[in-house]
Amino acid sequence: MIYRRWLQWPQWQLHSPYDEMDRLRRRLEELYENYAGDQAGRSSSGVFPLVNLTEDAENFYLRAELPGVASEDLDIQATGKSITLSGERKIPVEEGARYHRKERDAGKFSRGLNLPSDIDADKVTAKVMNGILNITIPKAESVKPRKIAIN
Amino acid sequence: MNGSDSKELKVREKQELSSQTEQTRPGPVFTPDVDIFETEKEIVLLADMPGVRAEDLTIDLRDDVLTLTGEVQEQANDQEQALMMEFGVGKFYRQFTLGEVINQGAIDANLQGGVLRLTLPKVEKATPRRITVKSA
User: Fold this and answer.
1) Would you call A143 an interface residue with chain B, using a CB distance cutoff of 8 Å?
2) Which of B7, B41, B67, B87 is deepest in the core (most CB within 10 A)?
3) Beta-carbon contacts below 8 Å between A and B
4) Residue B59 vs residue A26, higher pLDDT
5) Residue A101 maps to a domain
6) Given this model, what pLDDT does residue A40 score?
7) Domain count, chain A
8) What is the DSSP-derived secondary structure letter of residue A117?
9) Does residue B7 form part of some domain?
10) Residues of A in contact with B38 (CB under 8 A)
């Protein structure tokens, strides 16, 4: 970007009237990074379905938007540290239809995810509500934070 | 046209709407993906609106402009911390102009599993009548 090159130009000068501009440049860069960082925070793996992963002290929560996917067409597997989501989205063929727009896709999907720590694979629960899959993944006992009593 | 047999689903990023008419409540607004098709009798619109409950969906048809608005409830509890966020959550909004005259009284909307199916029956065109000219 032009303004950056221009602002970096007088860097060889010590204590110059450009100090003020240098501050401005840094401030601009900070803003730019914050903006880019926000975009990066939502960077996708490019694998369907996109997921949001969160955690609290007890569980991981994995959410995915799967509108129109029936729960019987969904398969969730959990092992020591990973979760696999697979299934198929079916869109029925409409008889005698003349399409004006077709933006919704049908097809199969499969995605594996490694979690940051061990999980209790036997206690994973999942539900689909209004087209959002919600998986609750309890953390393994060994990785849960433990409160230590002080005598 | 079906292709659900072996096709792998590709990621389609949610389309964020940059400038809707000014909002009273801040937050991202997304454009739902839609299928629109027409049969002899009706126009059918299917829209993917994951997370929208029936009571949070507003369908408005006025002067040939159809507006869909869906509010989405936050699913996370207060203690949750984000580890990886790949999709944004927010309201859905999209507007269409209808070319056909719709029988407004017979519109049917059905929301199931995050998919809206909106059936807009066309007004039956008056069947052309042949006028016979009598000659006296």
Assistant:
1) no
2) B87
3) 157
4) B59
5) no
6) 42
7) 2
8) S
9) no
10) 97-98, 100
The predicted-structure confidence for B50-85, as pLDDT tens digits, reads as follows: 999 999 999 999 888 999 999 998 888 889 999 999
* CATH number, domain with residue B35: 2.60.40.790
Provide the shortest C-alpha distance from residue B134 to chain A (in Å).
42
Give this prediction's pTM. 0.75
When divided into structural domains, chain B yields a total of 1
Same domain, yes or no, for A72 and A25? Answer: no
Helix, coil or strand: residue A4: helix
Mark yes or no for CB contact A67/B6 under 8 Å: no
Is the residue at B113 inside a domain? yes
Q: Is A37 on the interface with B (CB under 8 A)?
A: no
Range of lowest pLDDT (A9-18, A121-130, B85-94, B119-128)? A9-18
Could you give the percent of chain B with pLDDT greater than 90?
Answer: 49
Interface of A with B in 51-90 (CB under 8 A): 51-57, 60-61, 63, 65-70, 88-90
